[in-house]
Amino acid sequence: MRYLVRDRMLAFHEEAWVETEHREKLFKVNRKLLRLRTTFDFVDTEGEQVARIVKKALTLHHTILIKQHGETVGRISKRTLRIFRDRYKVTLRGGRRLRIAGNLWDREFDIADDSGTLAHISRRWFTIRDAYAVDVMSEPDWLLLIILAVCVDHIIEDAEGEQLTNL
């Protein structure tokens, strides 16, 4: 199943919508501003919080926690010292591990475990910068895979912002 993540243009604060491929809205992703650390809330169409993404402050490299119902269910961090491909490691509650590998320049990523590819994240088919697709191959994990896609996109955006400010 293909899901689309679309940033809302001209919003006062950062906001995105997760939609099905048929443009049915599923979740709103709100970025909480004016906080010590970056926080994103996944809110369903009824206004109920489904998950929260929290970027840990003061870490050597990007580390993001995924929380549901107040409990940490996953941790994603960028592996350091990769030259040609970006790699992220994901540790889920219960010890399950996932790998995210892709190309920063092309914005193409795969989320995989030991059994194979679970999802593919792509901006390739979109000419505007404010949308990307998440093709989910593992339906039981669809929500987690979309959350991970938002995390990777946020890490990339942060890295690009740091490069611009360090010039």
Automatic annotation (TrEMBL):
Per its UniProt record, what Pfam families does this chain match?
A: LOR
What protein family is recorded? Belongs to the LOR family.
Mind telling me what this protein is named? LURP-one-related family protein
